[in-house]
Amino acid sequence: MSQLANRAFFAFTAALGISGFTLFAAVGQPFAPAIPIVLYSAYLWLNRDAIEGTGGEVLRDSPYFLGFLLTMFALLLIFQDASVGGGAIAKSPGLFTKEVGSAILTTVVGLFCRQALQTLIPSAQVDEEGERLERVAAALASHAVQLERARQEFISTVAAEADRREAVFADEQHRFRAELRREADAMIRAATTSAVQPVFTAPSAVLASVGTGHE
User: Fold this and answer.
1) Annotated domain spans of the chain
2) Nearest to residue 26, comparing CAs of 72, 88, 113?
3) Of 77, 64, 9, which Cα lies nearest the Cα of 38?
4) What is the pLDDT of residues 114-155, one digit of tens each?
5) Which of 25, 50, 114, 131 is the most buried (most CB within 10 A)?
């Protein structure tokens, strides 16, 4: 990355110098100052593999800063010419608007090249952020699965406990009814026995009284 950064800085400086010379010498305006920006951006695109592997956010943004510096330099020249009484802009005020438009063109071209590099050269930081989000999504999905499994186990446990208690209640109710039935049968047998016993004892008492009378 250090070698690429050094070469990119040299290319940046060269583009800045060439564009600055065209602005100062008023050569090929308004498009000539923007041509080195395009060439510098093409150089960065040719080295996109090295830039992509190391992030290179500053390098992807550098065409915009190059265009902005050229715009500032062009405006400085325009205001300096306007401040001189015998300057071309002082003699032709309509030329001021044309010169300012030419100065802004370098920033527009730099911004366009920056956006192109941002699109064509993926950011390693963005990839890392995407991987981090994917890991977070996978963890959330795993927790959701575990939560759903725990919910199902809880529902199964509650249902099994409810079935067990219902079975215990039904068994207790069955035993209670059986106990009541045995108690009722015992009471019925006891009542039947107490009612039948005087029937058998009464003839015996009559016979005993008759025997006593004959004597």
Assistant:
1) 2-122, 132-196
2) 88
3) 64
4) 888 888 876 655 555 666 778 888 887 887 888 888 888 888
5) 114
